[in-house]
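dude i think i finally got it to work??
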Amino acid sequence: MLHNKNNTILLYGDVNEKMAHYFAREMISMSNYKNVVVRINSFGGDLLCALAITNVMKQHRGEIVTLVDGAAASAASLIAASGTCRLMFRNSFHFAHKVVNDCPVNASMFNAVINRVYKGVDLPEDKWLGASESFEYGLCDKII
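look at this
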């Protein structure tokens, strides 16, 4: 989780409380930027932390570009899908899945929230998606 001295936040590593706190602090400090770039390389983590991050993103008045540098898996895929402009490299991946039944809270409620974040995309169960498939499913807007 490094921060460049411009409008870029790197979300590299586990999605957890530490990352969510770091992200919220950085987004608040960038409130004057018209555009913020969120670069992602993460195998995911805590769903509630990912939802907190996506909610902070929604509060930004400008454009939020998400760029998948390597992998955006599980909870990190939600974050990547929440950008206003969603980019991937040709050799990047999403790993998408629904919340599993052993989730400590109501899995069906979280799946409904996830469907709203993914904008109603009917995702396959437990599937790695390359850039082309992610584009076809509507998880990215452009492959670079």
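The chain has a mean pLDDT of 83.
im so relieved honestly
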